[in-house]
């Protein structure tokens, strides 16, 4: 089923993004695997926790874990001089992963009859949570909070799903495509949300 | 009941504190909401986790979430030049929140017949946990661990409640007031706990 | 039973390591206790979460908590000029703790019939998780991800236990000794895993 495929692509993309950042930070091979796995599964772990599903359910996704491990291995072995290009592809897959995981997280929460707030939070955390944990482990400020519009698209997916506008597969695919494209546009054209700076007192 | 009111004030105060720090760190509007919500509810999430209550119970506090969202919106829209004053009020509300949440956390743990250690930890984490997560997401060292006496007041509340000294509402109010005042005094007069510096080897 | 003793030594060692880092970072006495406790119990908390055991089970280990509190107190009161030596002993106990906790975590996961992946992750997180949380709270990059071979030994313990090679007490003791010695050798002779640096794009 196509949904599994999307989910697999998301897992792969996030695993790759974690592995690349670990290599940028000069982690050893163990750190590369750890950061790849955490990025791919961290968002789902936090979501399960917040919506009351056992975190240990993650272990039933054996195929996803194998996909992540294979992806990280390929990134680690990949020829050096092509990695700049990987980084560009990484952003593309990351957008797909954000979109697929946000929609999954929202559907998960809707099935449990959680209120709108919880559905939106589940979408945001499943889509962006892995990246937040990744950045904190890598000693970086979580970029997702500062740069081009990112988690808002996940929130939008959660909102649309929670108000029952989108339920059948066809509309889910359209939503998935729209969120992915909007994220890529945000990144390409540096769309930003308003912010207000205040001076520390 | 007054207890709900105190809890609401605590939620509002922590939400405001998170929003202010997010603006100091130049997060966009999404980051401001995220940090406000995390500061207001993070402590409770960690506490639930540690004392064996489902974290998803947080979603039943719909009114609290609405209060937090409204508070953050007001902070974001607030006129720039008054924000210095907000910061001062933020410390005041933060003290109230620390006190109210520490007492709540301790009572929660006592109801579950947990040992003294767990009650003290629940008080400390509910009172200060949101701020610790807030500082880590903002890329700051958790200030609560370094500056004027803070979490110790939460620990004291937990200890007094766990040894059964304080149970009826009247004494709880006195404890709440005392903890709030002690925290404000700590901040105003820069009370510090002893520390011992050792040189890294 | 000797297993309890090893576990106690691990708890003591991690509590000491957290307390020493807190003092290096100039935390106050409260911060010293907090970081000591978090280092000693954080790994187990994350493991319980991931393998579906209630985190609150930690509170049943009252003796361990008391041991940790006493250890931290002794470190805090210890004469200044001897602390350099403590640091050296800290590494020794840390190796014991890593080994004992990794084996415990793996056995825990095996009892729950979790797949190999989960057993290895449980071993790694129980052995190294407390130190990762410690470093993040102290505002340091998690050293375990960068320096001499560390968590890999925990992963190896998990792997050996999960494939049923090692189950009876005698082999567990041999494994415990081997992991401890390998970690000490890694540290002493600066064994490192391969790493690949890529330039940030």
TrEMBL record, chains A, B, C:
<comment type="similarity">
    <text>Belongs to the UPF0126 family.</text>
</comment>
<keyword id="KW-1003">Cell membrane</keyword>
<keyword id="KW-0472">Membrane</keyword>
<keyword id="KW-0812">Transmembrane</keyword>
<dbReference type="InterPro" id="IPR005115">
    <property type="entry name" value="Gly_transporter"/>
</dbReference>
<feature type="transmembrane region" description="Helical">
    <location>
        <begin position="116"/>
        <end position="137"/>
    </location>
</feature>
<feature type="domain" description="Glycine transporter">
    <location>
        <begin position="5"/>
        <end position="78"/>
    </location>
</feature>
<feature type="transmembrane region" description="Helical">
    <location>
        <begin position="6"/>
        <end position="23"/>
    </location>
</feature>
<feature type="transmembrane region" description="Helical">
    <location>
        <begin position="149"/>
        <end position="166"/>
    </location>
</feature>
<protein>
    <submittedName>
        <fullName>Trimeric intracellular cation channel family protein</fullName>
    </submittedName>
</protein>
<feature type="transmembrane region" description="Helical">
    <location>
        <begin position="63"/>
        <end position="80"/>
    </location>
</feature>
<keyword id="KW-1133">Transmembrane helix</keyword>
<feature type="transmembrane region" description="Helical">
    <location>
        <begin position="172"/>
        <end position="189"/>
    </location>
</feature>
<dbReference type="Pfam" id="PF03458">
    <property type="entry name" value="Gly_transporter"/>
</dbReference>
<feature type="transmembrane region" description="Helical">
    <location>
        <begin position="30"/>
        <end position="51"/>
    </location>
</feature>
<feature type="domain" description="Glycine transporter">
    <location>
        <begin position="92"/>
        <end position="161"/>
    </location>
</feature>
């Amino acid at each position: 089923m196509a949904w599994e495929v999307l989910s697999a692509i998301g897992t792969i993309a996030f695993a790759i993004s974690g592995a690349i950042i670990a290599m940028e930070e000069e982690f050893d091979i163990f750190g590369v695997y750890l950061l790849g796995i955490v990025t791919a599964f961290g968002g789902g772990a936090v979501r399960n926790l917040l919506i009351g599903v056992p975190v240990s359910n993650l272990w039933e996704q054996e195929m996803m874990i194998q996909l992540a491990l294979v992806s990280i291995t390929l990134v680690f072995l990949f020829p050096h001089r092509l990695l700049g290009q990987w980084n560009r592809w990484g952003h593309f897959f990351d957008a797909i992963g954000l979109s697929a995981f946000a929609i999954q997280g929202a559907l998960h929460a809707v099935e449990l009859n959680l209120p709108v707030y919880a559905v939106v939070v589940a979408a945001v955390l499943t889509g962006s949570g892995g990246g937040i944990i990744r950045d904190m482990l890598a000693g970086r400020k979580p970029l997702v909070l500062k740069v081009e519009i990112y988690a808002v698209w996940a929130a939008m997916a959660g909102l649309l799903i929670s108000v029952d506008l989108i339920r059948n597969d066809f509309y889910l695919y359209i939503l998935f495509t729209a969120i992915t494209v909007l994220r890529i546009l945000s990144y390409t054209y540096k769309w930003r949300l308003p912010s207000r700076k205040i001076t520390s007192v």
